[in-house]
Design a protein that fits this description.
The two termini are about 35 Å apart. This protein folds into 2 domains: about 300 residues, ABC transporter transmembrane region fold; about 240 residues, Rossmann fold, CATH 3.40.50.300. By secondary structure, it is α/β, with parallel strands linked by helices. Strand 1 and strand 2 form a beta hairpin. The protein has 20 helices and 12 strands.
């Protein structure tokens, strides 16, 4: 059974480590960051000058009784000009920072996808496809939102807060201290919010991943769902998961509603009230500067608005930290594709295959292959037969290096299979599955798999060789025919012929057939058999056989039971022995 997404519990230290790991991506774009900060400093400086212009305009010209229209116009123009400069440089800062965030996210998403391409099959056996899709899409989007929104706001807000406090102390230290009185309270609120919101957002992300998993599996298995009338059950399960996600999101909103908006607005109001009270008391003894009052009220908003923005982004931050943990969990995962130790002289030329006492287990405890030994000489065909669970597909899995084996060895042309590069192995070996995967695209693209080194002429020649042209040339666009999702418009036999051609154009030395003739319709059965004969000619072939009548001409047949070879020989020898193979063959003959 596949594992569901784990519930991640992150300590404050772990969150800090994740943040540092994300920030480490900035080093390749440090100049973009430096330029962005320079733009931000210019924008912040101009923002601080504007309240001072208002103070001068009110105190020196409006309330003083002076009617210097020239200076009033000059100050008004200066205010507008500085506002324009601030807007331009803030735009440049935001644009550059967003570009930085997008590039980092692009890098992370590429690295994540590259990591997935090298993961061992055990990981995909245990992890739902929907969960993996969620990590590559939703989780990286959350990281991107944090980088372009949270980090940029934290940078700009932090600089603004420090700059405003410096300006306050320059104009009136007492008022600056009064304004700072409530800042520690805001910091305490931030601390409490971060602590409480972490668990809430972890739950929401987990439920979203479950939602994606159910959606992906439902779409992939829609035919089975409808055949067995499972729609109501699946709708009910999806509704329950959707409701759980809704509840988790509502819990986040309630937390935001309590700790975010009211608290900051209250602290802003309290600070302004304290400043007005101070000026009110001062007015009994001296004349109060109205411009100074307005300037400090403006500075208070400029002090607390950044704090509000930081807290507002903490929700995104918590979501992104959880998402980054999920992403880096994949990047740090050690269940990778079986590793090779390439030797320079290891080249597949003759394609002689030897299994020497190979044992294998999927879970490390229960062996599904037990001391398997056999030899396939160049150009020969070896057939594997046996009941379900006998170990046939496991032999293919270890030979294709989908899974690592830890006992015995597999030799090709005298070299251990670990001595070849994985690229060379996959180039010289080709696998044809029982149910070939057909991609959305043209027939030509499906055969060449977008390998531009393979020409149209070579693809068409391969299709004609396996006799797929008999049905392709009846299509409106022939070889340029657009294939629908998973080749649903083609029969099983037609899809298998396309798979044969796909194998043929790569010209492999070793051909592996995993029950390639199991689901063939009678209409194309003769074409499949003829195409298969043409395909295996001159190639070393290992075939898992479902229909025993198709392997009569195999050079050697291995009969497996519970992971062991219980019989071996050619068709006539095994029939004469009247063992397990004989009984399987007789049963199929009776059913036919």
């Amino acid at each position: 059974m596949k594992q569901t997404d784990e519930k991640i519990t992150l300590s404050r230290t772990q969150q800090w480590q994740l943040l540092k790991r994300l920030v480490a991506y900035v080093k390749d774009m440090k100049w973009t960051l430096i330029i962005s900060i320079a733009f931000l400093l210019v924008a912040t400086t101009t923002d601080l000058v504007r309240p001072a212009i208002i103070k001068s305009l009110i105190d020196d010209y409006v309330l003083s009784g002076q009617s210097d229209m020239t200076m009033i116009v000059y100050l008004s123009f200066a205010y507008l000009s500085i506002s324009l400069v601030s807007s331009i440089f803030r735009y440049l800062y935001v644009y550059n920072f967003y570009a930085l965030g997008n590039r980092i996210t692009q890098t992370i998403r590429h690295q994540l996808f590259e990591k997935l391409q090298g993961m061992g099959m055990r990981y995909f056996d245990k992890t739902p496809a929907g969960s993996i899709v969620s990590r590559v899409t939703n989780d990286t989007d959350s990281i991107q939102e944090m980088l372009v929104s949270v980090i940029s706001v934290v940078f700009s807000s932090s600089i603004m807060v420090v700059s405003v406090l410096i300006a306050m102390f320059i104009f009136n230290p007492i008022l600056a201290l009064i304004s700072m009185f409530f800042v520690p309270i805001a910091g305490l609120v931030v601390f409490v919010y971060q602590k409480k919101s972490t668990r809430s957002y972890q739950r929401a992300r987990s439920k979203l991943s479950e939602l994606n998993t159910k959606l992906a599996e439902s779409i992939a298995g829609m035919s089975i769902i409808q055949v067995f009338n499972q729609q109501k059950r699946l709708i009910g399960e999806f509704k329950q998961t959707n409701d759980d996600y809704y509840d988790a999101r509502m819990a986040n909103l309630k937390l935001d509603g309590i700790l975010l908006y009211p608290i900051i607005h209250l602290l802003t109001a309290l600070t302004i009230g304290a400043i007005l009270l101070y000026f009110g008391v001062q007015s009994f003894d001296t004349i109060v500067s109205a411009g100074l009052v307005l300037m400090f009220v403006d500075y208070v908003y400029m002090l607390y608005d950044p704090l509000f923005m930081i807290m507002d982004r903490l929700a995104i931050f918590q979501q992104a930290i959880v998402s980054s943990s999920r992403v880096f969990t994949i990047m740090d995962h050690e269940e990778i594709t079986p590793q090779q130790t390439p030797q320079e002289d290891a080249v597949i030329s003759e394609a002689k295959i030897e299994f020497k006492d190979v044992s294998f287990s999927y879970d490390g405890r229960n062996k599904v292959l037990k001391n398997i030994s056999f030899t396939v000489n160049p150009g020969e065909t070896l057939a594997l037969v046996g009941h379900t669970g006998s170990g046939k597909s496991s032999i293919i899995n270890v030979m294709m290096r989908f899974y690592e084996f830890y006992e015995g060895d597999i030799l090709i042309d005298g070299h251990s299979i670990r001595d070849f590069t994985l690229e060379h192995l996959r180039e010289k070996m080709s696998l044809v599955l029982q149910d070939p995967f057909i991609y959305y695209g043209t027939i030509l693209d499906n055969v060449r798999l977008l390998d531009e080194s393979i020409t149209d002429e070579e693809v068409i020649e391969a299709l004609k060789f396996v006799q797929a042209d008999t049905f392709i040339e009846e299509l409106s666009d022939t070889y340029h025919h657009q294939v629908v999702e998973r080749g649903a418009a083609f029969s099983s036999g037609q899809k298998q012929l396309l798979a044969f051609a796909r194998t043929l154009v790569t010209n492999p030395k070793i051909l592996i057939l995993d029950e390639a003739t199991a689901n063939i319709d009678t209409e194309t059965e003769s074409l499949i058999q003829d195409g298969l004969t043409r395909l295996t000619r001159g190639r070393t072939t290992i075939a898992i056989a479902h229909r025993l009548s198709t392997i009569k001409d195999a050079n050697q047949i291995l009969v497996l039971s519970q992971g062991e070879i219980v019989e071996r020989g050619n068709h006539d020898e095994l029939i004469a022995a009247q063992g397990l193979y004989y009984h399987m063959y007789e049963l199929q003959q009776l059913n036919n």
